Structures are given as C-alpha cells and as structure tokens.
Amino acid sequence: MKIFNTPPQEIRELDQSDTLSAKRNEFLVPDDIIYLNGNSLGPLTKNSQQRAQEVVFEQWGKDLIASWNKHAWIDLPFIAGEKIAKIIGAAEHQLVCCDSVSINLLKVLACCLQMQPTRNILLSQKENFPTDLYVAQGLEALLGPTRCKLKTVAEPELANALDKDVAVLFLSQVNFRNGDRHDIEKISFLAREKGILVVWDLSHSVGVLPLKMDEWEVDFAIGCGYKYLNGGPGAPAFIYANKKNHAAIKQPIQGWMGHREPFTFDPDYKNAAGIAQFLTGTSPILSLAVLDSALDIFTDITIIDINRKANALAELFLDLVKNDEDLNCLTLESKADSTLRGSQLAFSHADAYGISRALNKADVVVDFRSPNICLLYTSDAADE
Ligand SMILES: Cc1ncc(COP(=O)(O)O)c(C=O)c1O
Question: Which CATH class is domain 54-298?
C-alpha cells in the first residue's frame, strides 16, 4: 500500500520539527515495523528494560526480602500512582496502582453501592467495554437485583436515564471500537446534580487525552497500565478516588495490604486511611516497577503535546487515506472531529480481518475489532 511506503519529504520534515521526536529514542520499537497498536499494548521503554534487570538481578537477586524497604517496593503502588495522578489532573494521595481494571471496577462499584444505600441501579452504556459490564453483572448476581441492578442504555439515552434510582454511572470515556469520546466534565456534572456517583474507565484515555479529574469533580476512576502508559503486558491498573469520598470508602476485597497495620497480623480488618484501602494483596513488584519506570517518559512532556501530535498524525493519515484511490473503500467509523474521539482511528470494511492480517504481515501492526473494524492508534510518545 502506497501510504505505508517511505514517506515523502514533507512528512519526514514534520518528524524532524516535532518537539516529541526525541522521545522515539526512549523506546525499543523494532526499526522495521510501524507499530499502531499502543491502544492494546504500549511498546517497551528503555527505562523499563533497565529497571526490569535492576529489580530482578540487583534487588530481588541480591537484597532479597530486604528490598521491600531498601528499594521501597512496599511504597511502589503509591509512587507509581502519584505519577499517574499528574497525568490525569489529580492532586496527591488519590491514586493507587493495583490489580486489573476489572478487579478495580468491582471494588469501586461495590464501594459506590455502599455509599448509596437507598439506590440500586448501576447505569452504563451498552457499548461499554465488555469486562466492565461483566463485573457489574457479577455484582448483581452476588447481591441480588433489589440491592444491585445493572441497567444499560444506548449513548443518546444516557442523560434521560439519570434518575433517583441510579446509584452510580460507570462509563468508559473512549469507546474501544470506534473511539467515540464522552465529555467527562459535562456528564459528571449531570450525574452529580441527580445525586449519582460517577466512575470513569480511563483505559483508552490515560496518557493520550488531557484529563482533569479533580477539577471535573469525578468521584472515582480506573484505568489500564498496559496501553498508552506502556507498563507492559498485564501491568497493574490504577484507581483514582476523589478525596471527598475517602471517608466513605468501603470495598469488599479487603486484604492485608489495605489494612491500616498489615504487619500486626490483626485477625480483624481495619481499613487503612484514604486511597490505600483499595489495596488488597501483595503487589506484583516486577510488573509494577516496569510500569513505574515507563511513567517517567511523561515527566518532561505534557499530555497536551501528546494530544496535539496525535491529532496532527490522525489528520495527516486521514488525508492520505482520502487521497488514495486504493483506500477509498475504507469507511471511517471514528468521529472526524478530533475533540470527539480518542487517539484512534477505526475504519470499517467487510474484509477488515483480512486487511488487518495483511497489514500485520507487512509489519504494520494494527488492531482488529470483530466483526469489521480495522483499528489504528494515532498517538503515544513512541509513535513517529
Ligand atoms: C476500557 C477497558 N476497560 C477494561 C479493560 C480490561 O482491563 P483489565 O484486563 O485490566 O481488567 C480494557 C482492556 O482492554 C479496556 O479497554
């Protein structure tokens, strides 16, 4: 395909004048591939590769159990959490890295239900990422519909569905298929007006979209570490809990790491203060350390810069597709207006699966979403 051949001079020049171009050298992406799949698995950073070796050989290998204190393993969920806090517009002490998004959502939804004793509806969108809906279905099966009932509506019906029975509204900001983006500030406000708590899944937003969790008065958020944060396969996820809710946090997967004094081995659970009580068991230190180092990529750049570049790449890409007669058969399923979509472009085609496979074979790594979507992400500090 023509567009994936050596780019013309103007495109090379754009790369050269790009303020993020030096970031390319901080990643270990093979030279001979074009990687457009950071929405599923972000690439490896040099920082992370070095950290993995350090943690395995120097810390675990030599200092063994002393590393929990000597190398601050015990604090890592919060150290990495504070780095993510900066990226999502949150003040300190409101973020922790732990478990997966699915597990964290269960903890947070159960917490919201307990904060809303007279309401039973968990409201979401039919098009939400399936795991989010499965978690809510599991909670409903456990607690029974009188206490907990999942209701899903199509996106245009969301505002009307915000009524006095809704305990919590939980949504993914960016649709994993077509990239449609919700306005967090607006929807959170509408929900708050009706006494509804909000939980945002930021898996496809964190690291690429400008976010202001505190300013937008979001109650809770969760998100992935292995996508745009480049934390590696199965990297821990995170939980944001707005300070205003800390006194009310109560979550069911109570474990010793969320106890206020884990090492007293108290037979009775007494929750730690604040965000720490969302911890459950021992953190996966190897994964967490790798994520923690990957987050350093963001220290000297802004999400605004990343977003600007993502949009510029997307516009260029769309222009190239539009002007290529071989590619006219692709239908853009993402919003043309970049403020209404995440950092991805989704194209539909009856043979999307075959096209995705052919691209992958040609070392252009894209994603496929059944049944007919070919998905390209358009940002990440690694993307050139
Ligand atoms: C929006 C969204 N939520 C949740 C998940 C699942 O996260 P986890 O595997 O950490 O449970 C994904 C995974 O792709 C996702 O895209």
Answer: alpha beta
CA distance 237 to 104: 8
Q: What atom of ligand 1 comes closest to residue 226's alpha carbon?
A: 10
> CATH fold of 2-44+302-377, please?
Aspartate Aminotransferase, domain 1 (3.90.1150)
pLDDT tens digit string along 188-208? Answer: 999 999 999 999 999 999 999
Site to probe by mutation for ligand 1, drawn from 102, 124, 199, 229 as the one with most ligand atoms within 8 Å of Cβ, is 102
* Ligand 1 centroid to residue 131 C-alpha, Å: 7
Q: Which of 174, 200, 209, 224 for a ligand 1 pocket mutation test, highest count of atoms within 8 Å of Cβ?
A: 224
The amino acid occupying position 350 is: A
Asked, colleague to colleague, whether 2-44+302-377 and 54-298 share their fold, the answer is no
What mean pLDDT do residues 79-97 have?
98
Burial 39-51 (b: 16+ CB within 10 A, else e): bebbbbbebbbeb
Would you kindly state where each structural domain of the chain is located, as residue ranges?
Answer: 2-44+302-377, 54-298
| Binding pocket residue ranges, ligand 1, CB within 6 Å | 100-102, 129, 131-132, 172, 176, 201, 203-204, 224, 237
Record the tokens describing residue 86, joined without a space.
């900066």
Dihedral of CA 255/256/261/266: which sign? positive
| Residue 132 CA, ligand 1 centroid: distance in Å | 8
Alpha carbon of 237 to ligand 1 centroid (Å)? 9
Mean pLDDT of 36-46: 93
Q: Measured in angstroms, how far is the CA atom of residue 138 from the centroid of ligand 1?
A: 16
Residue 382's pLDDT band (cuts 50, 70, 90)? very low
Query: What's phi and psi for 180, nearest 5 deg?
Result: -55, 140
* Gap from CA of 236 to ligand 1 centroid (Å): 11
Whether residue 168 contacts residue 113, with contact meaning beta carbons closer than 8 Å, is answered with yes
Is the pLDDT confidence value at 359 over 80?
yes
Summarised one tens digit per residue, pLDDT across range 131-175 is 999 999 999 999 999 999 999 999 999 999 999 999 999 999 999
